[in-house]
Structures are given as C-alpha cells and as structure tokens.
Design a protein that fits this description.
12 strands; disordered C terminus; about 20% strand; alpha+beta; seven-stranded mixed sheet
Amino acid sequence: MLSRLAKKGSTGSTTGMRRTFITITLYLFMACMGHGASELKPKSSNATFGRLADHLMDGYNKGVRPVQNWNQATNVTIHITIFAILGVDEKNQALTTYIWCAQSWIDEFLTWDLMKFENVTKISIPTQWVWVPDITIVECLSMQKSDEISYVHVYDDGRVVINEPVHIVTACKLNIYYFPFDVQNCSLTFTSWGDPVNDINVHFWKNEHVMEALPFYYDTDGEWDLVKVIHSHREFVVMDDKRFSQARFFIVMKRRTMFYTVNVILPSIFLMILDIVGFYLPPESGERVSFKITLLLGYSVFLSYASDQLPATGTPLIGVYFIICMLMMVISIMESILMVRIVHNQNLHPAVSKWLKKLVFGKMSLLVCLKDWVHRVAPREDSSEQTESITEKLAFSDKDDIDDDYKQLPMARLLELLLSIQNEVVSIQKHLKKQDNDSIIMEWLQIGYIVDKFLFRVYLVVMLVYAAVLATIWAQWYWQRTLLHPNFYN
C-alpha cells in the first residue's frame, strides 16, 4: 500500500516538473522573440510629430495675426522662380507665365523647444490649420494653381514657409513699335489690400537687387527669352491715409527674332532687290511693266502672309516699312507705264515745252550725270525755221538774172521747170517735217531716259535711307539689351 502510494507520488511530481519546465521554456522563448523584434523594429517619430502638432495647435487661433505685440508688423518675404513664359498676347495686352511662388513669415505662436521634441526642427501641417497672409497679385487676370498645396512647413523658430506653383495670366503694357526686335518689361506686384504696412510688411526673400534667371529654372523653346528678373519695394498711400507695402518683380524678356528674320524680313528684302534690278531693263521695253506687275502681285501675296505674323494692335515700324516698299513698287510701275506711253505713241507727241526742257535737260540731267549725253544728241533746227530761211534766200536772189533766164526759155520748158521746182519744194517740206517729228520723238526719249535714271536714283536713296533708319533702331535695341544684361552673350 505504501509502496503503491510512493510510486504514485513520484509520478505526479515528475509530471508537474515537466509542465513547469515547458511553461518556463515558453516564457523564455516568447521573451527572446519579443526582445529581438523590439531590436529589429525601427523607432518611429510619428508619435513625436503627433505630440508636436497637438502642442502647436493647443489654443491656436488662425483667425488673428500671429504676434505677441499687436503694434509689431508681420514681415512677409516673397520669392518667385519663373519656369516658363507660356505666351504673350499683344492684342489683349496679357502675359501668361508659369511660376513658383514662395512666401515666408514668422508665426510667434508656432514655436517649440527642441529638447522636448527629440530635436525636431521642422514639421509639415495642413495649410488650413494656420494663419496665412492675404497676399494678392495686382496685375492678375486669372490664376490657376497646378496642384493644391495642402501643407506648410513650420520651423522651430516660428518661421512658416509655403511654396506653390502657379499658372497665371497678368496684364502687361506691351510696346510693339520695335517688333520683332522688341524687349518687353512686365511686372508682378505682390501686396496685401486688407492690411496696411503697420500690420503686414511685404519684403523680398533675397537681398540681391537682381535675381538672374538660370537656365536650370527657365528652360523653354518658345518665342521669348527671359533676360532677367528685377525687383523693387515701395509703399503707397490710399484714400484713407493708410500706407500699404508692395513687392514688384519686373520680368525683362526679349523676342527670338530668327523666325521673323527668315520668314518676314528677308523675303521682303529679296523682292525689293528684284524691283531695283528691274530698272536695268530697257525703258521702252514692255517686259519691264509685266515684270514689275508680277513683283507687285508677289509682294501682295507676301503681305497677306506677313500680316498674320504681325501683332494685331499698334503700328510696328516694320509695318510702315512694308507700306513704303509697296508704295515704291507702285511708283516704279507708273514710271514704266509712262515710258511705254512715250515710246509707242509717236504720232501723239506734242512739242516739248520750254519749261520741261529747262527742268529736265538743264537741272535733272546734272543730277543723273547725263549733261554731256544731252549735248551730243541735241535736236536739229526746227523745220519751219529752215523753210523760212530758204524762202528768204529765194526772195533776195538776183531778179534780173532770173528774168533773163526765163526769157531765153520757151513757155513749155518754163512750165515744166516750175512744176519740177514745186515738187522739189514739197519733197523738202515733207522731209523737214519728218525730221521735226523725229526730233520731237528724240526729245521725249531723252526726257524719258533722264527721268528714268532720276527716279531710279531717288528709289535707291529712299530705300537706303530707310534701311539706315531700321539699322539705327536695331542698334538702339541691341544697345538697350546689352545694357540691361551685359553678360547675356557670355
């Protein structure tokens, strides 16, 4: 009995020990696994950010200006980066740009101790949680934000920074007189219409007077090149004697001229050169008129294309140049038609008046260096004067000798002789009239040649003077661009 009880007791104790051992082993295994998992899992700062956000928002009122002393102004600094000039609308006087706008200010209620929050220096919190200044762009016509910026960056010293990309259309006064060699200056004015300078003072992010446009920030193959961005600060007074501050950014840009030079300016120059060469065709040739009319038609077609490239408003200098070129072509066609009229209507030529001879042969021939040529081909004496001279010579002949000769001849022979003399006189008269007509035609031809040379030189002078004016204006534009940005070509 005792042995059976002893055996049973030893079996129970063995089973209990096993259970205890298994339990201890499981606890040790779970403890090791927990310790290993805690070593492998990285520490997260979400809890710190959460505590910091709760700390900042505890009792925070975003509806009031964040200053301890209400007499102290909030300084808002602004910086823009221009990524692209998307378009310039000359007709509506508008500029479309894509910019990155950054604003920064001090919020005295959003500060914390770094030691209490594990040295966290910056936190991002929703924009609708904090106070944001009411900064607007004065020239803004329409604005489209690419992405809704829902967070702002807050630093431990209370500085709040918000960055937002903006697709904006602004009003800009464009001067297209120098088109296509024009430089435009458009402004972006940032100000607060609701708070005067005593409450919100707008400043610039950087202290440099000029912020250069680096290719990294501005990279586009559009029609415009960004030269530089200049900023200025000023204060202005409104009707109720309140002073407001504004920060203005001046965007200086120039038009890329290669397209207009190749497609607008050079074709016009080539057509004008052909019109000048047309003056070397013989003035009495009808091919000159047809050639110049063809050029005028071609120039008209060219202007219909060029008008699509010119601005819809204003009068650029190049438009005046096109009008003058067409006017000179019309004048040259009228001169060629006049020459054809002089040469081919010979029977309708009146005698050249003395004042016209004096003007053309005396003065105009000197201007075109044809004075010697006029003297070499001077017209003969008038036929009427020659006829009177012959009559006077016959009248003053020796009448006695003639009477003696006539008495010796029979009557039939005398009549035959008189008839022969009459025929000779008529023949001489016709010959002299023909010479007179040829002389008139020659005079008109001389006048036509001299006038043709004179108009050709006037044509050249006008075109050269106008080309010099355009070159001067272009040089002025080049000087202006170089003065604005002297390192532009480096």
